[in-house]
Amino acid sequence: MAGTRGVGREAAAAGSLPGKRPPEPELEPEEPSLLGAPGLSPGPGSDPGLSDSEESVFSGLEDPGSDSSEADAAAEEEDGASSHEQHSRTEKPPGQQAGTPSPRTEVASVRFEDEYVEDSSDEEDIRNTVGNVPLEWYDDFPHVGYDLDGRRIYKPLRTPDELDQFLDKMDNPDYWRTVRDRMTGHSVQLTDEQVALVRRLQRGQFGDVSFNPYEPAVDFFSGDLMIHPVTNRPADKRSFIPSLVEKEKVSRMVHAIKMGWIQPRRPRDSTPSFYDLWAQEDPDAVLGRHKMHVPAPKLALPGHAESYNPPPEYLPSEEERMAWEQREPDERRLNFLPRRFPSLRAVPAYSRFIQERFERCLDLYLCPRQRKMRVNVDPEDLIPRLPRPRDLQPFPTCQALVYRGHSDLVRCLSVSPGGQWLASGSDDGSVRLWEVASARCVRTVPVGGVVKSVAWNPRPTVCLVAVAVEDAVLLLNPALGDRLVVGSTDQLLSAFTPPVEPAAQPAHWLEASEEERRVGLRLRICHGKPVTQATWHGRGDYMAVVLATPGRSQVLIHQLSRRRSQSPFRRGHGQVQRVAFHPVRPFLLVASQRSVRLYHLLRQELTKKLTPNCKWVSSLAVHPAGDNVLCGSYDSKLVWFDLDLSTRPYRVLRHHKKALRAVAFHPRYPLFASGSDDGSVIVCHGMVYNDLLQNPLLVPVKVLKGHSLTKDLGVLDVAFHPTQPWVFSAGADGTLRLFT
């Protein structure tokens, strides 16, 4: 029947001309039959030859390519005619009597008698022929499905947006009862019956108005006593045999009563219960058994000041009373003034009682109820298991020798590669050479200024000492030890031939005069700026110098064999404190105030930047293996870096109480030492393992004291013996000390 209704509309739209009203179909009156009514014949405008695909052209989903204006006009005229016809059917003419049936009433009776005449095979809207297909499949397409001929059924050209909906809401009084049909894409206005049905369903009522949920119940069984029973079924066997399940339940309950698991109900005690206001809560109480229960804090017990007759020492004087009144309430030790009364009857009511009770309630309910979980741990377990110091021997334990002779504080010292001689520089303007074994001063070389740094050349075949004095570095041949080594050193220095065209250098190399050569001076390197440190490379040919000047020329590198000087940096990174050569790789470590930078000399690039997290770096030392770096700072921190692990400190040691002045590694033993202004030298065991998965073991083993403080300065430099577990220290008291 769906096709019949659609064909009628199509024929009506196709047969009507623009501007003319389509003829209304005439309904011939028929006599109503008792057995039923014949089916309604199709309208005069219908054509049975039209297919369903042709009918789909006039559905609510037009093809955007078709001429839809004529179809819309025909559909509107046909809808107007059908609505007019329905209105004429529902309204009865005033002149018609009730007894004579009219043709329209006969047709209505025919429709009432046969309700399946115009029923559709499916319950979908007749204007949509896409079938029972989920419309979500076509959300991203311009069409909504296909007709029977395979042509697309397009969506409406324009869907109403929010602005159209708002205008429709303002203009249309029936907007609240208008819904959108998803199958056709058109708006449908609900009738009053449909609105009433929706409201009944929203209120939880039945959809049918005529349904009464409170109808009287039908009594299927009468209350009269009948002669014969309703069912004459014999009783079951289990009705007169004891139940085994109940027997098992009873036995369980009896066992629970015997074991005391089930207690009889005790009568309630009507006597009131009193409790101590200041007593601690019972942990076995109901609240105490709660896992996260936090007991309320108790009030402090009243003291002598709260007494109505306090002792005389608790009564304030006039001055104390005035001072108490002038203070802020938060600054007062007591929030009341103690007073004396002859008896309890004379004590008036406490004026701040309600206020204090209110503050107590606020304290109770605003108290943070977070339990601080305490872990019962033995304090000994928190200390790491370190080996005993006697298992880490050998290391220096006592003072063996004192080297006396300088008249002012000794700033620096250096040990010869063989360990037989010791060089020291002092503020008295001299460099002294000592014999290590006997503490005898072998030679004194006056240099005419404060000696900032002394460095013995690490090559055993060269006998040369670099001394930093003011703005120059002096190269001395102390002429100690093997004469062949002394002679080869002078021959090495004299074998240099200057180039024809000398290049511009940041430093000047000057030969020593005859008088200076008698003292032992061989070369003088002038820089024009004060020199603070001079250190040799491990092979003994290169030397790094730190200048006390801002800019990129703070660090200079000198080559002894070719007498060349160069500045390795284009720009400066803060004030340089110390420099050191890597013992194995072509690296240069530069320590500024807040960081230590590691440069690759061959690639000429920055490799790493270490952050010691201290205020001012004072000293620097590199492990003989080259993978660990030690830094001392003026804020009494000793920082150990593991270069393979991180750029952050592996360990920060705070053993000293004052500023650190010097740190040093032993070239053979796993030892390192630090000297501080507190006058002590702390020797630590620092074992570095070949296994990369095992961290270094750092254990302080000994505190060596012997230097006296002078001008708030203590130990200014430390150095280890190259072969023995001995340590040398230079102090502000003008002495050098050997600890063995």
Automatic annotation (TrEMBL):
WD repeat start and end residues: 403-444, 653-683
UniProt cross-references to SMART domains, sorted A to Z: BOP1NT, WD40
Keyword Nucleus: yes
Compositionally biased intervals (Basic and acidic residues): 81-92
Function statement: Component of the PeBoW complex, which is required for maturation of 28S and 5.8S ribosomal RNAs and formation of the 60S ribosome.
Family listed: Belongs to the WD repeat BOP1/ERB1 family.
Name of the protein: Ribosome biogenesis protein BOP1
Organism of origin: Delphinapterus leucas (Beluga whale)
